[in-house]
Specification:
Largest sheet: none
Number of strands: 0
Shape: globular
Number of helices: 3
Length: 80
Amino acid sequence: MFNIPYMYKMDMDLDTAEAVLRGWSQSTTVIDRMENVKYKWELHCSGHDFFADDDEFFECWQYEANAYNVIYAAMKSLFA
């Protein structure tokens, strides 16, 4: 799960989270999208992206990070 700064946290239900991660494409799974968001975070943490700090990352990816957390929390027993 992402440790999202307070100013970027959102209340999101499971259906909205799925819609956010799925986006316009129905051809990929939600798990694939979650892995993509996680990869973007790992890329940021390794210093291989263009965000200066975590605030810039979350400003850009706040919807996806919040959606990731909602789905992860709902399905965490499956990920264990």
